[in-house]
Amino acid sequence: MELKQKDIEEIFAYTQSQNNKKDIKGILLYEFGNFFQVLEGNKKVIEDLYHNKISTDTRHTDIQTLINYDIKEPIFKEYNSDFNIVKTRAQLDSIRTYLKLNHHHHFSENIQRLLNPFLL
User: Fold this and answer.
1) pTM, 2 dp
2) Strand locations in 1-120, DSSP E?
3) Which of 30, 57, 76, 103 makes an SS bond possible with 25, Cβ 3.0 to 4.6 Å?
4) How confident is the model at residue 81, as a pLDDT?
C-alpha cells in the first residue's frame, strides 16, 4: 500500500500524540516507503502497543523487530521530553549527534547503524 504525504502526516501526528500520552520515548522516521521506529517506555505499554496496534494495522507489512531488550536506562530519555517525529535532515543530524554524545549507552551504536540508510 503506497502512502500519500497526507497519510504519513496523519500517522506522524497520531503516533506522536499517543506516545506522548503514554510516556513513550523514541523516534519515528519515514523514508523510501519504510518506517523506522524506536520505542522506549514501560514494557507492558510497549508490548500492548505493538501487539494491539502496530502489528494489527493493515497499513503495515513486513514488520521487523530489530532490537527487543529490557533496558535500565532509555537512550532517548534525555533527548527530548516528547516522542520525536523526524521529518528533516537537520532533525536526523541532531539525533545522530545525540547518539554520538551518548556513545556510552550500549544501543547507541546499533541505532546509529540502523539510521544510516536514512542519511543519503
Assistant:
1) 0.80
2) 25-31, 34-40, 84-86
3) 76
4) 67
